[in-house]
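User: Could you check the structure of this?
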Amino acid sequence: MEGGQPIRIYCKGDTTLNMAVRGNELRLVRDDPNDESQVCDGVGKLTDDEERPAFALHWIQDYSVGRVTDDQGRRAFALVNNLGGTRRVVLISTKNNRQLEMAPYGDCVKLSMLWSLGVQLPGGYSEVRVLSDLSKTLNGINGFVKEGTVVGIYSAEPHSIHAIWKFDPINK
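Assistant: Sure, the predicted structure tokens are below.
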């Protein structure tokens, strides 16, 4: 699969919290440029003795999944994280349809790995919708927007601060 522009992902409820990978879950965590599961804008310090590799670890919004669109004609994409140099994609859990998990990302793209953006709202925020069911969106579970909140999917709430997201490009 092709790459895309590195992005930072956060919800309107607290712009200092980014979506990040923790184990096999997605969580809201405090914005930290040294946390490779959130963002990376090039070479930066990890510890006093260690440099971050120049290949940059980050989220990307990958549109190279073909010409797939949702029922409203909006283009599909995959949310991919390059944690540890391994490309992993966000997908809907087969165990619990509200949970998200990470899976290896390669040439075979499943429908459960694809998303689309809803209507752009003021400030550049949008719902991030499950491609196969536009009534389900990326969501801070239980309506919480605090450090450690699990990010999953829930019924669309287009005006809730825990359910509308922004993807900000990161300049390399």
